[in-house]
Structures are given as C-alpha cells and as structure tokens.
Amino acid sequence: ENDVRTECKFDNPSINQPGANAAFRFSVFEKGIDIRNRDYKLFLGDKEIASGNTGTGSNTTANPNPSGVNTAKSGTYVLKVKDDDGNYQTSCTANLTVADVELTCTNNGKFHIEVGNPCVNNACSYEVKRTYKNSTTTIAGSSTTYLGSGPYNIDFDGYGSYVLYINGEATGCSVSISMNKPGFSCPTAPGVEIKKPVTFTLGSVTGCDENEDDCSYVIEGTSSYGSGYKSGALNSFTDNSVTATGKKSYTVSLTNESGTTSHDCEVDYNGGNAGTGKATCKAPDSVKVGQPNLKFNVSGMDPAPTNPTNIPLVCNLQTVVSPTCRPNGSCDVVNFQAPKTAGTYICDFKYNNADVCSTKPTIVVVAPVTCSISEERVPAGTQITFSGAANTNYGAQANSCGIKVNGNWLDGNQNQNVSSKTITPVVNTTTTYSFVCTQGQFEQISDAEKAAALTCSKQVIVY
User: Fold this and answer.
1) Are 194 and 239 in contact (CB under 8 A)?
2) CA 20 to 30 Å from 248, out of 15, 41, 159, 435?
3) Digit-coded pLDDT (tens) for 113-160
4) Neighbours of 424 (CB within 10 A)
5) Alpha carbons 93 and 9: distance in angstroms, whole number
6) CA quadruple 11, 16, 20, 22: dihedral positive or negative?
C-alpha cells in the first residue's frame, strides 16, 4: 500500500534544560500501522533534522539532537516517509517545547556572557562573531565545544557588532561597540580682515582619531571641506560676500561613521589694520586684561596740527588715551591702560576724521582663562567634553583653578587646585560649565572685573 501515515510523539515533550534527551518516537509496525523498511526524514520547518530507515520493529526513534552535538528547539516536528512512488509524504507531527538557554550579553569592558539555563550533554557549541563594515570574523579565543554555566568574558577586537552564536546560529545576545560621534568646540571668533582668508582651528576635538578613516568636515557655504581630519586647523576659505565689518556665523560639521556634529562658529570681520595716514604708531601687542602703563608712540604725523592738539586713541568705541600731538609731527609719549575684556582691538587714531597712522594700532588683550566644550546642543543622556586652562603668562595663577557646574564647584570641591582640567559628564538638562581661577595677578582692576576675567563659561543646551 502507499499509505505512510503513522503516530508520533516526543518521549519528553517539555524539556527544561537545552540538550536533554528529546527522542522523537513513531510507530512502525503496530496499531494497524505498517511503514516497515521505508526511508524517513524529520523536519523542523524547512530544516532537515534527522533521517534514516524505519526498520522492522514496532516503533523507532529519530533523535533531533544526534550525538548530543546540537540542542533541539521548540516547534512542530514533521516526519516524512518515502512512499511507494519514491516521494516523501507527511506521516505525522509532534510538538516539542525546549526551555531557553537564558543568555544575557553586556559590555563590562569585555563581551560578557551570563548563562541562566546551561545546556547539558555538551549540546551547545558556541562562538562570538564580529561584524564591522560588512565583514564578519570569529573572535579568536571566543569558542569552545560546550557553553557551560559561565560567566564568560571575551576581549573585544575593535568596533562592530558582536553576536553570540550557538551551534552555528546567531542568538539575540549581542553587544555593539561604536566610535564616539565627533565632538568639537568653535574657536573664539577669529578677527579677520574683510576679503582675507579665514582659518578655523577647532578645539576639544573628539571621535576623529579612532581609526584610519578619521573624520570628514565641511564648512557650509564655503570652499572648506576635507577628510582624514584628526584635529587642528581646517582648510582656509575666503568669503567674498562679506563687505561690512561685524560677525558672521558659519556651520561647521564633523562626520564619522557614528554620525555628524555641527556647530555655528563665528568670524569677527574687521576692516583690517591698514591705515591711510603717514605716521608710525606703536602700541604694545599682547597684554594682560586691564594692564596699566602701556606706552603709545606716534612719529611722522603728516599733516600735523598747527597747534598742540589732543587726539583720542579709540579702541572698541572707547577712548583709552588722548596724547598731545604737536606741529613737528610727533605726539607726546603717554601711558594708558589696556581694555578690561579679552579680545583683539584695532584702534582708531584720527585727526580731522582722517587716519594718522599708516598701520592702525592693534592691541591683543589675552584671556587669562580659556575653556571649550565639545557640543553646545545635545539630546538628554549625551556625554560631552569640557576643558579649561589657566594662561599663567597673562594673569592667572597656577594651581588656583577648578571647574564649576551651574555656579557650584564640581563635586563640592573648591580646592581642586589645578591649572587645567577636562571632564566628560553625561548631560540630562541644560547646564553651564565654568573654569574658574580664584587667584591672579592684575593691576588697577576691580574685584568684579578680576573675577570676570578669571572665569570662562560654556553652556550645553539639552533639547
């Protein structure tokens, strides 16, 4: 006859430990059934699990985990028996439930595996595979014949997705290691003469020196872009659309495989320090905040006043000194005090609304404290980098500084006593970070002005 139907069941249809005996038993020559000496195949889904010949006994078994190498899985098993025409026909089905291995994989600095329900009978061979940039490799030392009770700690081998395989099949137990999204801070708005090249030198760059690809960058709306960036200056650009003095923002973006970070960075455009006069004017270049007794010299004034005349030296719309200039083309050497706010000051010295100097006096007031932050707008839960440093050559006292968070000393410690410091907090709300020095050497400025000069703050906005 061509009837190959039979009855089947699992001796133990509910297995509490993976790898335990899961014998699939079916009738061969009993209960009016006769499928003696026929070839059979046992399937779970589309996968063939076991095969053999029914033999001549009353019943026989097909082992879903032959030799204990593979653990049986939950599901409906289908027995197919070859009929007289040589075709495999469904003979019977039986259900099996197998308890889960209960795997947990985490990153504790290594690929950490916890096994809640270990396999028995050496049923679970395992290995860890890493996939990165469409290439999958097995991690050296990550495999053994038997996945026992653990725990296991396996070294990571770079960025990528790490997945635990059991018996050659991927499990849901995985850990991903990815590089940090780029971080950087904008430079203090560089003072640039109109129609001249602009160069941005980014600060606190992170996530751009972690592999051979590094970061690509672009300054939107300009000719500045590139790849292989690690840190330092970006390619220069010239913005010929700028025709008036003032500040203009440019969107700077750094990108790596984990994402893109963008900030709007300012350029302070000025008319340059070229004057239309003939006199030689000399003022000190780099000075401290509020530094007194600075000398201003003028010679070769042409035209000169017919009578002694006081002419104001104006820096940032503020008159800092008014030397007396004489008919011989010279001006009295006078002392003056530097502005009390850090910055670059291109000063005007004019007589009858015309430049006196061939080169305008330029005074750079150097900040005694600097700071930077890697990102200015972030989602909650983002890790950022904040750094600060004391410029001891320009007023800040070494080892007198520390970091404040929202106006309070970090960890309540007022005596951090550092000259520079970097922190990498995770921010969940909008936060202001400050690098503050409590001691500094300045003359002729108020306590409030001194405190302002010795503080550098950056805010991170959480959206």
Assistant:
1) no
2) 435
3) 999 998 888 888 899 999 988 899 999 877 766 788 889 999 998 888
4) 13
5) 8
6) positive
C-alpha span between 59 and 211 (Å, rounded): 62
Q: 354-355 and 348-351: which strand pairing?
A: antiparallel
Peptide linkage before 312 cis (omega within 30 of 0): no
Q: Which two tokens stand for residue 193?
A: 């003469």
Q: What are the Cα distances from residue 329, in Å, to 195, 284, 307, 319?
A: 33, 21, 11, 21
Return the percent helix, strand and coil in the chain, to nearest 5. 5, 50, 45
Place of tokens 């001891």: 392
Residue 392 in 3-state DSSP? helix
Q: What is the DSSP letter of 453?
A: H
DSSP 8-state code for residue 353: T
Residue 340 CA to residue 129 CA, distance in Å, equals 61
Closest-CA residue to 311 (of 284, 329, 294): 329
What is the distance of C-alpha 448 from the center of its chain? 37
Residue 412, classed as helix, strand or coil, is helix
The pLDDT value given to residue 373 = 87
pLDDT digits (tens, 9 = 90+) for 232-268: 899 999 999 998 888 899 999 999 888 899 999 999 8
- Say if CB 40 and CB 59 are below 8 A apart: no
Supply the DSSP symbol for 172: E
Distance CA 120, CA 70 (A): 10
Enter the tokens of residue 104. 């947990």
Coil, helix or strand at residue 67: helix
Per-residue DSSP letter, 449: H
Instruction: List residues bridging with 365 in a β-sheet.
Output: 287, 343
CA nearest neighbour of 251 among 238, 262, 240: 262
Angle at 341 between CA 338 and CA 342, to 5 degrees: 90
Which residues make beta-bridge pairs with 423? 386
Residue among 368, 384, 367, 389 at smallest CA distance from 459: 384
Q: Which of 367, 366, 390 shows the shortest CA–CA distance to 286?
A: 366
- Residue 367 confidence (pLDDT): 94
298 close to 331: Cβ distance less than 8 angstroms: yes
Tell me the C-alpha distance between 318 and 355, whole Å: 17
pLDDT-derived band at 66, boundaries 50, 70, 90: very low
Strand partners, 377: 461
